[in-house]
């Protein structure tokens, strides 16, 4: 037997067995899809060299090979939390470790986290939440994702990412907002205000576009003076509603493009002494769990949030190298609750 060498490496084993480093790694990690003659050579070489695996490195590699990276805008957002819950359910079924990163809405952080997950050799990368209306960002992100995919990694996104080449689970933001507009028109409302998030977010653009289109089909024009912009969260909804109140807008119904923005709007309206829905009706979008527990419960477009996360990971895990750009569309349902009332015509 060859005298034991201090710090024998996997490269030493591969060289002695006259196989590639990848083949030696597969054999010593217990992978079965290796030719028997190659497996025997690697085992004999490891025994002759008294090779001892680096247990810590194996643990890290094993975790990386059985992991999925999830990147979202804000993990504290109830929308993201419900979607991630669906991801966790499927990850548990497949014995995958979930690594979670929050970008706080910063495009550069999203790119940085993708790069980190590449280095960790995650099995799949999921992007949760709205894409950005930014072609430069899309090109840079694709440049990070392309070598990851070529190496066998899978990518899936929730919500439309116009500039990203990836499998997509796409909620029907535009169609849901359009249906909501029709339902509110059916309650007799004719004067609307819209509280939007930043127009750099694809989901915001789609929901605003759908709502505007739905109103137009009912003969109502939504002008720029009817739209008030804030951040895509509770504080943004509050600020946009305060701006609407200061402008003395005479809307009978306010549409916030997310439930969280609607929560902030409700607080601002109450501070002003305006009752919902007696003085003004209020609607949101998403149907996060909180929407049902508000007083009054919030009219909204219900998306199956957990299902979005489940479908995204299933889509990623079912992919094959070179297969991409598959789309699964998931519709929403208008839920009319007590925050919107039939408009009483004044005599």
TrEMBL record:
One of its GO terms (molecular function) is transcription cis-regulatory region binding. The keyword DNA-binding applies. The keyword Transcription regulation applies. Keywords: DNA-binding, Transcription, Transcription regulation. InterPro entries: HTH_LacI, LacI/GalR-like_sensor, Lambda_DNA-bd_dom_sf, Peripla_BP_I. Residues 8-62 form the HTH lacI-type domain. PROSITE patterns: HTH_LACI_1, HTH_LACI_2. This is LacI family transcriptional regulator. It comes from Amycolatopsis rhizosphaerae. The lineage of its organism: Bacteria, Bacillati, Actinomycetota, Actinomycetes, Pseudonocardiales.
